[in-house]
Specification:
Helix 1 links the parallel strand 1 and strand 2. The relative contact order is 0.20. This protein has three helices and five strands; from the N terminus they run βαβββαβα. It is globular. The protein is of the alpha/beta class. The strands form two sheets. Strands 1-2-5 form a three-stranded parallel sheet, with helices on one face. Strands 3-4 form a two-stranded antiparallel ribbon.
Length: 186
């Protein structure tokens, strides 16, 4: 069968267990990807992220956080509209909690103008090591990969290619772990 590719979405964040050492997450990730070597078709990880938690705002839908948090989430001021002032409409940034809610939980809802973002449990160095390990796993086990989002409004470094690249986690010019033959940048 020509032109067949198996797409899989492999995240550390969903179902992650608390780990003091972030490299345990990567070892678990390698175990998830290893069976891909035995599949007769090319395998792509069509979605992934650096995140080890599900704190990203609206990750599971509009005010609907179904997954428990592995680490304490950080809170930041919610972004303002990108529209011109005469068109922009803001929300009540003083409200204790804003709805509507997508499910039966208020987890992840905007509170007093604050939105959840990635946990800051791991240091930048640990996140960098984890990213290197993940990309090494891609190079070893799969034929292609795409990070979850090019960019996002919350500047979620662990969920965004642009922010992760700008933070140095995905910059091939400063990292030796990339297989240069498998990187496609426009």
């Amino acid at each position: 069968m020509d032109n067949v590719i198996l797409d899989t979405h492999q995240y550390l964040a969903f179902g992650a267990q608390f780990e003091k050492d972030p490299m345990v997450h990567c070892e678990n990730y390698k175990k998830m990807l290893a069976p891909a070597k035995d599949i007769k078709y090319p395998v792509w990880v069509g979605e992934w992220s650096i995140a080890t938690d599900v704190c990203a705002h609206w990750l599971n839908g509009f005010n609907d956080h179904r997954d428990p948090y592995t680490y304490d989430c950080a809170w930041v001021d919610c972004p303002y509209s990108y529209l011109p002032e005469e068109l922009a409409v803001d929300f009540d940034r003083t409200a204790d909690i804003l709805g509507p809610f997508g499910g039966d939980t208020t987890l992840g809802a905007i509170q007093k103008g604050k939105c959840m973002v990635d946990s800051a449990y791991y240091t930048d160095e640990q996140v960098n090591d984890l990213t290197k390990c993940m990309v090494d796993a891609f190079n070893e086990y799969v034929d292609g990969q795409f990070i979850w989002a090019g960019k996002n409004e919350m500047k979620e470094v662990k969920w965004s290619y642009v922010q992760a690249y700008d933070a140095g986690y995905l910059d091939p010019s400063v990292s030796s772990f990339y297989n240069k033959d498998r990187i496609f940048l426009n």
